[in-house]
Amino acid sequence: MNDKLIIAGKSYSSRLLVGTGKYKDFAETKAAVDASGAEIVTIAIRRSNIGQNPNEPSLLEILPPSQYTLLPNTAGCYSAEDAVRTLRLARELLDGHTLVKLEVLGDPQSLYPNVIETVAAAKTLVAEGFQVMVYTSDDPIIAKQLEDIGCVAIMPLASLIGSGMGILNPWNLQLIMERVQVPVIVDAGVGTASDAAIAMELGCDGVLMNTAIAAAQQPVLMAGAMRKAVEAGREAYLAGRMPKKLYSASPSSPTAGIIGSTRS
Asked: pLDDT band at 263, cuts 50/70/90?
């Protein structure tokens, strides 16, 4: 099935995007990423070494840019200024790489996005030539504003980062999908495979996750489950589910012609 995810003009076969933090070591990181089938992997610049610390192991040794699309992100940033500075550094470290994930957090307890600072950072980054995939709240008005600024993907939360609470507000996600033309990728809150499948069945273009895989008892096994869930959810969305009914007078197996089924 030729059903590609298109972001900033580039096509991807996988609609599952994964993070690289919280694993016990690089070997587990690599195994989980491979099991997920993800082609886009996020890297928290403030927490991962991609060359800024030359005497430490680099994440690029196991996830080379020649094999994966790296998505530097601004995890841990609480202001537009800090986020912009972080992604400028990423561009230098990655030889002019411009596809980035912007997130500006509101507070350290909930990790809820600060949409005011997010909008400000997005304006600066787009003006500087970055291709911005942006983490935001599930507010459809803000989502549209971010698209109008020039962001290449809108990434609303399903629930709070690391909560594993799943899709708490599917109606807002649907409102966002109705209003924006760029890809909508659920980011944050997915806890297990059924959450990922639901996001895809709603019509989202993809799912990004980290904790749901890394914090599982068997991360590599969970990564494979997430891969299957995203694929199944996408296919179910494309197939079009049957309408929901309180009951049905039309059985799945026809009764016409069955002996004893007719009345005299």
From this structure: very low
Read off the DSSP letter of residue 36: H
24 is annotated as an active-site residue: no
**DSSP state, 184?**
B
Q: Output the six-digit token pair for 2.
A: 């030729």
**Chain segment 44-55, per-residue pLDDT in tens:** 887 777 766 677
Angle between helices 219-239 and 193-201 (to 10 degrees): 20
Of residues 24, 101, 144, 244, which has the active-site annotation? 101
- Written in H, E and C, the secondary structure of 60-119 is HHCCCCCCCEEEEECCCCCCHHHHHHHHHHHHHHCCCCCEEEECCECCCCCCCECHHHHH
Stated pTM of the model: 0.89
Give percent of the chain above pLDDT 70. Answer: 92
